[in-house]
Amino acid sequence: MKKSLLLYNVKAGRGKIARNVDALTEIFRQAGYDIRPKLIEFGQNPFDGDEDCHLAVVCGGDGTINYVVNSMKSKSLSPVIAVIPAGTANDFAGALGMDSDIMRAARQIVSGQVRRVDCGMVNGLYFINIFSFGIFTTTSQHTSDQLKHKIGKLAYIFTGIKDLLHLHGIPLHVKCDDDEFDFNALMVLIFNGETAGRFRLARTARIDDGVFDCIMLEKRNPIVSCWHMIRYLMGGSPRSVRYFKSSALEMTSTLDEATDVDGQKGERFPLSIVCHGSGIEVLAPVPHRSDDTKKRR
After folding, report:
1. Is 295 helix (H, G, I), strand (E, B) or coil?
2. What is the number of helices (H) and of strands (E) in the chain?
3. Closest CA relative to residue 189, chosen from 220, 153, 158, 215
4. What are the structural domains, with CATH classification, of the chain?
5. What does the pLDDT look like over 226-244, one tens digit per residue?
6. What confidence category does residue 263 fall into, taking pLDDT thresholds of 50, 70 and 90?
7. DSSP letter at 288?
């Protein structure tokens, strides 16, 4: 049997993962996996001493998955990744079709199939769901774990309201696959995944199409900008929202704007962003054709 690891964040799922490590491990062992639980110590590489790992089952949210993917890439390792969702939003797990219940998710994995999905990279740092900057985008970084554990996704809204006090434009020069342009941005979202906070902002995004879905909100009058974003969320196409696809982007700015990768601190400008098509292997449920059709609409 090939070596497998159950990598878990002790704080994930309000401690639910830590309380159920034995039960989760048993599901995999009964399915024939040689698996060992291993606590993720942030600041240390979880693959140290386990470089021969074939399957890494990650129990946590997008930030934890991001940490594991960057850790394996730093060692030039390529284990298959599986996800048991135990974060706040669990966007990447949602894109893979994982059940929100951790036990059902484990059973989905042992009955699933290996397939390849994309991952993004910005200035050498990998991301699995979203790279972003501008208003509301660093909210996850500034939201305390204690608040997230108390009120869940509402914690992001509570913290995000404070961002309105620091509303400003970000002058950008952008190069993408088919265009080069200047843009005064209020917010920029570069999707490798399909949702942000489980909101489907990138309407036609797919996690395996080899391109990013890019959304840029232009800085205008604060009321106009907010109204146009609301219109976009309701299915409209306001002029101040620019939506396009690209496999790579180069961005420069006169501002040293903070950025975010999968809810964690991101890279600084200038930015070189590349989509690695089929960049990682995952073990997950096979997508239903009906779901696939809906994503293409």
Report:
1. helix
2. 10, 15
3. 215
4. 3-111 (3.40.50.10330), 125-277 (2.60.200.40)
5. 788 888 888 888 989 999 9
6. confident
7. P
